[in-house]
Structure formats: structure tokens, C-alpha cells
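Consider the record:
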Amino acid sequence: MNAACFSIEAACTGFVYAMEVASSMVRCGNYKYALVIGAEKLSSQVNWSDRNTCVLFGDGAGAAVIESVDEKDNSLLNSILASDGTHEELLHTAIGGSATPATADNLEDPGRYLQMQGREVFKLAVTNMANSVKKALEEVNLSVDDIDWLIPHQANVRIISAVGDKVGIASEKVFVNVQKYGNTSAATIPIALDELARSGELKRGQILVFVAFGGGFTWGATVLKY
């Protein structure tokens, strides 16, 4: 095979980050196609006795193909990527990283599972996701009224609704399928995009906005013309 292949680690924002990386590589002219995959297996990273967190997450995968084209009718218009590593205690796994590797002795330690302070994560997620959407639109001279579909990371309905309210977009333009699969992290946006496309409601020329917030913390928004 002659294709380059590498992984991008940005938790729930992974697909948004990867879209920008892939589209930049295609725009430079050295690549014609890129396959962007968002995949997660979170069922192995949650403590099934902690019902506050384990019931929120799911396993999933989705993918999209980016192609170099001459016309500008269908293109990624803008991306906003950001991060803040100062809130490590709000969403983390204490065991399993380079600082404290997983060993045979700590495999049963609760610290190896995902731990989250939901209320604080909610506040940061809503603020940063909404601000990312506004900034991404502003930089390409678009307004909220120009959005045909907002496809947010499917963390939970409360976050999705709050982001929509803060952005000022009508709820019928916000795609939601978290009730089917839970939070599948980097897979939520490509799964949602696929479902929207298969529904027949997604049309060529429409303006889409992807927005996500994830562990790290990472967040970002992508504006594209489908």
C-alpha cells in the first residue's frame, strides 16, 4: 500500500482535528484523497459499577473521504482548534498513561477507569463549543442564519441543547442521535453525518458546522459546504 497512516489523539474532538489535518494535506497538493476515521471503544475504559459515567458512553466508528477538487462549491471553509491542559482533574484516567502505566498489579484499581466531574465539564464544554462555532463562522463572514445543520459531538442532550441555545440556532437545525448510541467520543460526528446523509435531508451546497469538546481538554469547530 502507498497510503500514509497515522493516529491523532484528541479524544472527543478527534474527528474535528483529523478533518483539519487531512484537508490541509490535501490542499497542499501532495495528496488527492484522505480517509478520516473516528473510532472509539469506551466500554473497556469505564467502571461499570460507577453508574454516573458508564451509562453515558458507547463504542462506535465512522469515516469520511476528503477529495481534492478544482471547484470551490464543496469545501472545508474554516476550522477552529483549541486546547487547555489545566483542568486535568475534571476528566481523566489516573492509571494507564506514561506517568502511571497499567501493570498486572493495578489492573483492578478504579483509577484505571475514566473519571469525570460532570458539572464542571458541562460548563466548559458549552462555553467553548459555542464560542468555537461563533468564531469559525465569523472568520469566513458567515452568521448563524447561514447554517443549515449543526452537527455537534454527541456528549449528552443537555450539552447539545445548551450549545444550540448559546449559539442561537433553531433546534430543528441541530442533529441529535445520542439517544441511540451514547457518547462514542471521536465517532459521534461521522456517525451523525452518515445518518443525516442517509435520511435524505442533507443536500449538496448546504452549510454544515461540526463542533466538539473532549478530554485534554480539546475543542474545535469546522465549517464546510457539503
